[in-house]
Each structure stands twice: as structure tokens, then as C-alpha cells.
Design brief:
The complex is a heterodimer of chains A (199) and B (194). With 199 residues, chain A is mostly helical. Chain A contains 9 helices and 2 strands, in the order ααααααααββα. The chains are: A mainly alpha (199), B alpha+beta (194).
Chain lengths: 199, 194
């Protein structure tokens, strides 16, 4: 596959939370607002891109038996880096994401890409793959967070977007709202992909 | 055997590199992280306990050495002075004490005469609904105007009413405030102009 194709597959074919149905823990937990979803997505993208590149560079040196341990060390290092950078430059976001920043390390998308893709492909392809999947994840989380924020709080990125008599559905920003919203989006995407001709 | 050695070498190299890089990033982000912490955690508390100042207490902050702990390391306190006409009339600084679960970090504001202008709880992990009520103004407002003698439980001759069902949390806050007030004479010497 070409580099461009590796990049674009993350936006539909292998869109992480909806098509691969991976990484659901942060998807459900932090998407209470569009901004949190986007922040989480970008932090994950940062980790994903760099861990993919490093794993791809090291793929010929890492013995098969200790590969998972090596990948986790690489991923964990970038997660700690992301956490320190968030703390240093985006403190309110760091507070809002809380425990889910360190938990990026166990996000199965990242280890999944390292194991399934970066360990078998050249650096440029791995970079494109990480960037595509990461941005797909970011867009998914932002959309999910946006829908929940509009319905549950009447705002989008903190700005009011609804008419004045709108009564926010508080349950949309709580845990059940996350499941309901994710379910509807999954269903919608399945309908769309069924109508599209198969590849 | 060769496989085993290769595995050990590769993992060691990866972990060492990771450690070196992380310690570098940790050093590089130390200052901005401290600044953000002051801006988002301490500044709201400073504003809550100090009033009527014309300067920027965060910008004018001072590091004071407060003696040494058991292991010989210097204990430092960051003091935020409130100034009017160039003269310090109040200071804010923080101290910690053990609550029911973990440490409670309290910002205290103290006037030149050693009386509290107010306290504000910065961080705590007390039980929601019980100990967590230490952040409510109904509780913290009691400390206004108290000094080292009176910032204690009534049983010890003080004037602080404990929160019902949260004695440990209350005592934690009182201990933190008292620790802060015990340090005040030394701070007074260095900060307040005669």
C-alpha cells in the first residue's frame, strides 16, 4: 500500500473507536466535552506517532521474545513525556483528563499499531499509519465529545450553541450517555458503510 | 545463549535510553510545570486569603529557608506577600498535614500581628460528603481572625468547631494551619519591614 493510503485508512476503513472498536475506555470516559475529547485524541496521536516511528526504527534489532516488553517501554516513555508536557503547558486540560493521560500506555490502539504495523513496515509508512490512525481517533473523540457536550450542556468548545429555552439532557455527559451516543454513532456508521460498495 | 544475551542487551539499552530521555524532559519542563501549578492551584487560593493588595503576590514571591529536616535537607517555604504602598501587610503561604486519607494542603493568609486573614484548602483527598466538606466556606471562614492559640479544637482551648463525622479531616486542617502559624515568627522577621 502507498504511504497516502496508510495515512487515509485511519479516517474510515480503520477508524479506531468505530471501525476497529478499540480504545473504548478513553473514548467513553473523557468525551464529556469536545475540548477534552480533542485533547485526549491529540495526546494519543503524539504517543502513537512517536512510538510507531521508534518501533519501526528498532524493528530489526528487537528480538521477537522481548518485543512486547520493548514496545511497552517505548510507549510508556512517550506517555510520561506527554503527561509532563501537558502539565507544563496545558494545565487545565491535564486536570480535566486526569488519570486517563497515564492510562494511554494501556490503550490497545497504540500497542496494536506497534505490533500489527510498525514492527513490520518501514519508517515513513509507520509514521503515516500513526498519524492517520491518531487523527482518526482525535476526530472520533471530538465528534463524540461535541455531540455529548451540545446535548448534555448546551455548549460546544465552551461556547453556547443552543436556543435559550433548551433544557440540557444532563444524562448525556454522564456514563450512560457515553454508551448511548457511541451506540448510535456505531449504528449510523454501519448503515453508511453497508450502502457503500465493498472494497 | 546468544539469544538470551541479545535480549538482555537490547532491553537494557532501550530502558537506559528511555530513562535518560525522560530525566531530560523532566528537567526541561520543571520550571513551566511549577509556574502552571502556582497559576492554577495556588493563585485562586492566594486570592481567597489575601485582600486589598496592589502588587502581584505571585510575581513577588520569595523562597525562604525554614531550617532543616531530620535528613539535613533545607525546608523551603514559598511566601506570597501582599503589598500596599510598597509595604508588606499580609502574607500567604502553604503548609500540609495528614488528613483522614492523605495530605491536606492548606494556603493560609496571615496579618503582621499573627492573626489569620483566612485559609483555603488547595488539595485534599478526603471522603466526598464527609471530610471533603473542609473546602466549604462555612468551615474555612471560622479561621478568620484566629491565631496560634485559638486555631484549635474547643477541647484544647480553641475556637474551631469540628465537622460532624469528619474529626480526622478537621484535625488535619488544624494541624496544617498550626504548622504554618508556628513558622510565622521566622517569616515575619524576614518579610515584614519594621
Amino acid at each position: 500500500m502507498s504511504v497516502a493510503k496508510e495515512f487515509t485508512k485511519g479516517f474510515w476503513q480503520e477508524l479506531p473507536p468505530f471501525r476497529l472498536v478499540l480504545g473504548l475506555c478513553p473514548t467513553l470516559a473523557v468525551t464529556t466535552a469536545a475540548e477534552n475529547g480533542m485533547g485526549m485524541g491529540l495526546a494519543t496521536t503524539f504517543v502513537l506517532v512517536f512510538s510507531n516511528v521508534i518501533v519501526s526504527i528498532l524493528r530489526k534489532f528487537i528480538p521477537a521474545k522481548v518485543r512486547i516488553a520493548s514496545y511497552i517501554v517505548v510507549i510508556a516513555s512517550f506517555v510520561v513525556m506527554a503527561e509532563l508536557l501537558l502539565q507544563a503547558y496545558f494545565y487545565p486540560l491535564y486536570k480535566a483528563l486526569g488519570i486517563f493521560v497515564p492510562l494511554i500506555v494501556v490503550n490497545c490502539i497504540i500497542l496494536g499499531r506497534a505490533e500489527a504495523f510498525a514492527s513490520k513496515n518501514p519508517i515513513i509508512h509507520s509514521l503515516a499509519d500513526g498519524l492517520g490512525i491518531g487523527l482518526g481517533f482525535t476526530i472520533s473523540l471530538t465528534v463524540l465529545g461535541g455531540i455529548r457536550e451540545i446535548l448534555g450542556n448546551g455548549t460546544l468548545f465552551g461556547a453556547s450553541v443552543v436556543w435559550s429555552t433548551f433544557e440540557p439532557l444532563k444524562f448525556m455527559v454522564k456514563a450512560p450517555g457515553a454508551f448511548v451516543c457511541l451506540g448510535f454513532l456505531l449504528g449510523l456508521m454501519n448503515i453508511i458503510s453497508r450502502k457503500r460498495p465493498a472494497h | 545463549m546468544r539469544d538470551l544475551i541479545k535480549m538482555i542487551v537490547v532491553l537494557t539499552v532501550i530502558c537506559t535510553t528511555s530513562g535518560v530521555v525522560l530525566s531530560y524532559v523532566n528537567q526541561a519542563t520543571k520550571e513551566p510545570r511549577e509556574y502552571q501549578y502556582i497559576k492554577f492551584v495556588q493563585e485562586p487560593s492566594i486570592k481567597a486569603v489575601l485582600s486589598g493588595y496592589e502588587n502581584d503576590p505571585v510575581k513577588d514571591r520569595m523562597q525562604l529557608a525554614m531550617g532543616e529536616d531530620q535528613e539535613g535537607r533545607t525546608i523551603e517555604t514559598t511566601v506570597f506577600p501582599a503589598k500596599k504602598d510598597g509595604k508588606t501587610f499580609e502574607v500567604a503561604y502553604s503548609s500540609t498535614a495528614k488528613g483522614y486519607h492523605d495530605l491536606i494542603e492548606v494556603m493560609v493568609g496571615v496579618r503582621a500581628d499573627g492573626k489569620l486573614t483566612g485559609i483555603s484548602i488547595m488539595t485534599h483527598t478526603e471522603t466526598p460528603g464527609l471530610g471533603a466538606r473542609i473546602v466549604e466556606s462555612q468551615f474555612t471562614d471560622q479561621f478568620k481572625g484566629l491565631d496560634l492559640e485559638t486555631a484549635k479544637l474547643p477541647a484544647e482551648g480553641g475556637k474551631v468547631d469540628a465537622l460532624s463525622g469528619a474529626t480526622f479531616s478537621t484535625v488535619g486542617v488544624i494541624n496544617a494551619v498550626d504548622t504554618a502559624l508556628e513558622r510565622f515568627p521566622q517569616i515575619k522577621k524576614e518579610v515584614f519591614q519594621p
